[in-house]
């Protein structure tokens, strides 16, 4: 006797036609940010007229549960600044409680981190990435619009005291603004046994002039690391796109996220959903795809799972940044970077 398997059950993973498997979701909770970083929101956040509301906690639970059924096990909460969302702790706890989700992470600018780190850990967050674009207070203020470097440093210490298993720093690599701090950053991560990711600044629809003035290839960092004997590491399961190096003489790790490098998209393992419930198959895709109508009832789960499988199968092999095409992304805060 031959037993037919329902189409929805025939495939328990999210894969595209290029052989890439997706186990990692970047979930934006808000596009609001209280910093004015020169590479993202230099004029500060401005609410779009008539913008839809953010997903509710129940909609988020249904969304994450559908992804988890398809094998996705890591969720990163992003923004804007995700911790500005009033229900941030409740949402984190909800996501951490979804069956199949093994890791909940957050990317933050460090706002009120020193006083909140323990509550994040208690809510089920185990990994945190903190933006820190300079080790010099005046330069930090010039890049971010806020004189809060000391608060960020206190937040790092608080995250460690709270027992978060992974504490990483993100620094956008900016020619003429912070590229002369490379060796200082290396010394900092060695001293404090941290991981720091250098991220190439990316061209978006609102920053072509800034990009032309300040873009610096990730090779600038990798060449310096290799000169100093740092060792390139194999990519770990569930990791993001960073190429990581370890210090041969002790603690500290450096990652490089270089979207303009050759074959950057070949190892893509992440999907994005905006705060308003749109699926973005690529950070630099042409548009988001509305999922919200399928997030209203628990009984819609099967339909949502099937739709996610169909959509992910259509993911393009690569972004078009090399052609100067940033898709529909106005700035990185709009869908969570």
Give short descriptive properties of this protein.
337 residues; alpha/beta; TIM Barrel; twelve-stranded mixed β-sheet; 9 helices; disordered N terminus
Structure summary, number of beta strands: 12
- Main sheet? 12 strands, mixed
- Mean pLDDT comes to 89
CATH fold assignment: TIM Barrel
Radius of gyration based on Cα positions: 20 Å
Order of helices and strands: EHEHEHEHHEHEHHEEEEEEH
Shape from CA axes? globular
pLDDT < 50 stretches: 1-11
Count every helix, treating DSSP H or I runs of 4 or more residues as helices. 9
The structure class reads: alpha/beta
- CATH class category name: Alpha Beta
The CATH homologous superfamily: Aldolase class I
Share in helix: 25-40%
Number of domains: 1
CATH architecture: Alpha-Beta Barrel
What is the rounded distance between the termini? 50 Å
Strand fraction equals 15-25%
In short:
The chain is an alpha/beta fold and 337 residues long. It is 27% helix and 16% strand. Strands 7-8-9-6-5-4-3-2-1-10-11-12 form a 12-stranded mixed beta sheet.
Q: What would your notes on this structure say?
A:
The chain starts with 23 loop residues before the first strand and ends in a 25-residue tail after the last helix. It has one domain (7-334): Alpha-Beta Barrel (TIM Barrel). It is an alpha/beta fold and 337 residues long. α2 links the parallel β2 (74-78) and β3. It has nine helices and twelve strands. The protein has a twelve-stranded mixed beta sheet with strand order 7-8-9-6-5-4-3-2-1-10-11-12.
Q: What's the helix and strand layout?
A:
Blueprint: E1 24-28, H1 57-69, E2 74-78, H2 88-96, E3 103-108, H3 113-122, E4 127-131, H4 137-144, H5 149-161, E5 166-173, H6 182-192, E6 195-200, H7 208-214, H8 219-227, E7 231-232, E8 243-246, E9 253-257, E10 270-273, E11 278-280, E12 289-290, H9 301-312
């Amino acid at each position: 006797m031959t037993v037919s398997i329902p189409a929805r059950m025939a495939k328990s993973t999210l894969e595209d036609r290029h052989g890439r498997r997706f186990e990692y979701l970047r979930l934006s909770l808000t596009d609001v940010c209280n910093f004015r970083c020169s590479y993202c929101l230099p004029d500060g956040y401005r609410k779009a007229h008539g913008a839809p509301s953010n997903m509710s906690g129940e909609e988020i639970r249904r969304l994450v549960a559908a992804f988890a059924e398809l094998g996705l096990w890591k969720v990163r909460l992003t923004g804007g600044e995700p911790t500005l969302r009033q229900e941030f702790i409740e949402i984190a706890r909800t996501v951490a409680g979804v069956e199949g989700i093994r890791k909940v992470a957050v990317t933050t600018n460090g706002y009120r981190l020193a006083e909140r780190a323990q509550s994040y850990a208690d809510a089920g967050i185990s990994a945190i990435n903190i933006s820190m674009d300079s080790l010099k207070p005046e330069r930090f203020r010039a890049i971010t619009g806020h004189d809060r470097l000391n608060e960020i440093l206190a937040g790092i210490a608080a995250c460690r005291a709270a027992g978060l298993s992974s504490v990483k720093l993100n620094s956008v690599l900016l020619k003429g603004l912070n590229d002369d701090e490379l060796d200082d950053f290396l010394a900092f991560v060695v001293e404090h046994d941290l991981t720091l990711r250098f991220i190439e600044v990316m061209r978006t629809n609102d920053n072509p002039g800034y990009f032309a003035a300040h873009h610096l290839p990730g090779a600038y960092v990798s060449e310096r690391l290799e000169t100093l004997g740092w060792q390139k590491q194999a990519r770990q399961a569930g990791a993001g796109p960073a190429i990581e190096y370890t210090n041969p003489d002790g603690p500290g790790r450096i990652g490089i996220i270089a979207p303009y490098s050759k074959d950057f998209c070949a190892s893509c393992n992440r999907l994005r959903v905006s705060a308003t419930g749109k699926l973005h198959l690529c950070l630099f895709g042409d548009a988001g795809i509305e999922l919200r109508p399928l997030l209203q009832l628990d009984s819609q789960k099967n339909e949502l799972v099937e739709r996610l499988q169909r959509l992910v199968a259509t993911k393009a092999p690569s972004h078009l940044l090399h052609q100067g095409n940033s898709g529909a992304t106005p700035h990185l805060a709009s869908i969570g970077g």
